[in-house]
Amino acid sequence: MNDSKAKTILITGSAGFIGFHLASLLLESNWRVIGLDAITDYYDTGLKKDRHNILSKNKNFVPVEDCLQSEKAIANIFSIYKPEVIIHLAAQAGVRYSIDSPKSYVDANLVGTFNVLEAARNNQIKHLLFASTSSVYGSNKEMPFHELQKSDNQMSFYAATKKANEVMLHSYSHIFNIPTTIFRFFTVYGPWGRPDMALFKFTKAIIKNQSIDVYNYGKMKRDFTYVADLVKAIELLIKEIPEQPSLRSDSISIKGDSISDVAPYRIVNIGNSNPTNLMDYISALEKALKKEAKKNFLDIQPGDVPATWANTTLLKDLTGFIPSTSVEDGVKKFVSWYLDYYKNDL
Fold first, then answer.
1. pLDDT tens sequence across 256-288
2. Catalytic residue among 42, 97, 105, 158
């Protein structure tokens, strides 16, 4: 932003993997960032606290440790700081964990998102942006996944809550004219990543000479997206505010746009648009670590899908940006961070 006074944005999930990287980027761009995070123990809270500690070195970062289920906490943020934009990243994540602990997804993803929607409704937000997932495409077999494709058959309860969130946001966007952008993320990885994600678990296991579990016998493809590319795309989309239907001009319409006919609401894929075989991903990790993995080949897990692939034409048309970090480069950067962060434990 070029304003002399920093504009204010609320990021939920600011101590999370993506939230940390996004907050860092926006602070560099002179935003004042209000970071709301409950610092839950789904994974190592020390990692989350370290992320927040780094962000807190910037005078324009305001950490708020509370949960989305607290209506009072969210109301206080708007009363004190008056954010103009919300980027709602906070959620209970994980496909497999949603099989064992579905209620936590109801509380965080459904109730928490409802509270964010009420805040957006009551505070005349300029733009509400929400993190969804490629998992909402579910059993869809038409590749690459396009925002206009049907997404009715989710394969996990996690994906089901994210699809429910998308529908909730559309209804609020329509009824209350809230400009809303939905991101569908595709397998994000990179430094400061989540310990429950494959790259993190694989790295830890290989270093400790333990075997890694390779599901579907390695016959998986993922559109791996490097985190710096992802947050750059989000930053650019902040200013691409969907217009109300009555204000749109047909002369500037975008072919294949997912914008709603009845609301200022749009869905945008953010991915590398370059699906990689799981075995090639593992090979990139082995190369970065200079060590071969011991592989334990297993059946595909419940709730998993064999492949993802993002059509990112809309992202390019809206922002001119194309994620381009190669898996080899991205994995190398993750390994460099991991070896430094955990150097005392190796």
1. 999 999 999 999 999 999 999 999 999 999 999
2. 158
Cβ pair 86, 120 in contact under 8 A: yes
Q: Cα(first)–Cα(last) distance of the chain, in Å?
A: 41
Please list, residue by residue across 11-29, b when 16 or more beta carbons sit within 10 angstroms of its beta carbon and e when fewer do.
Answer: bbbbbbbbbbbbbbbbbee
pLDDT band at 231 (very low <50, low <70, confident <90, very high): very high
Identify the structural domains of the chain with CATH numbers, from first to last.
8-193+225-273+310-319 (3.40.50.720)
User: What is the H or E stretch that residue 65 is in?
Assistant: strand 61-65
Residue 213 to residue 296: CA distance in whole angstroms: 5
**In the predicted model, what is the mean pLDDT of the chain?**
94
The answer to whether residues 266 and 181 touch, using CB atoms and an 8 Å cutoff, is yes
The pTM of this model reads: 0.95
User: Beta strand 221-222 with 85-88: parallel, antiparallel or unpaired?
Assistant: unpaired
CA distance 172 to 121: 8
pLDDT score, position 327 = 98
Determine the residue type at 207: I
Tens-digit pLDDT profile for residues 94-148: 777 788 889 989 999 999 999 999 999 999 999 999 999 999 999 998 999 999 9
172 catalytic residue (yes or no)? no
Reported residue count of the chain is 346
Token couple for 105 = 């997804």
